[in-house]
Amino acid sequence: MVRVAGVRWSVEECFQAAKRQVGLDHYQVRHWTSWHRHITLAMLALAFLTALAADANPTRPADPLHPARSHDPITLSVPEIRHLLAAVFVPPAFTAARLLHWSTWRRRHQAAARRSHYQRRSVDEPAG
Asked: Which domain of life does the protein's organism represent (predicted)?
C-alpha cells in the first residue's frame, strides 16, 4: 500500500507540473476527440521540455550533498527553458544577448538563495 501511495504521489506531481508549465488544464472542449488532442499535445510539450532540460544538464554536481559550496548558477529547469523558448518564438522587446544575460543572472540569484537556504538549515539543525 505504501509503494502504491508513493507512486500515486509522483503521478500527482507530474500532473501539477503539466498544469503549471504547459496548460494541461486549460481546455474548453465538448468532445472526447478534442480533449484527447489537447491532452496529447500538452503531454508531448512537457516531454519535450523535460528532455531538453535533461539534455542541457548531463552532469551532476561533484558533491550533491553540499550544493551550498557551488557558486555556479542552478541548472536549466523546465520553466526556464519554456521561458527561453517563448522569448525566441515570440519576439521580445529585448535582444537575445540581454535575454541570455537575464537568464544567467536569474539562475545565479536562485543558486545564491539555495546556498543561503542550505547554510541556514545546517545552522538550525541540532547536532546529532
From this structure: Bacteria
pLDDT digits (tens, 9 = 90+) for 85-101: 887 787 767 788 888 89
Do 68 and 127 belong to one domain?
yes
- Total domains in the fold of the chain: 2
pLDDT bucket at 60, cuts 50 / 70 / 90:
low
Write the CA distances from 85 to 30, 57, 66, 93, 120, integer angstroms: 30, 17, 31, 15, 34
Based on the fold, state whether residues 51 and 67 are members of the same structural domain. Answer: no
Range of the domain at 40: 1-56
| Residue 67: Cβ within 10 Å count | 15
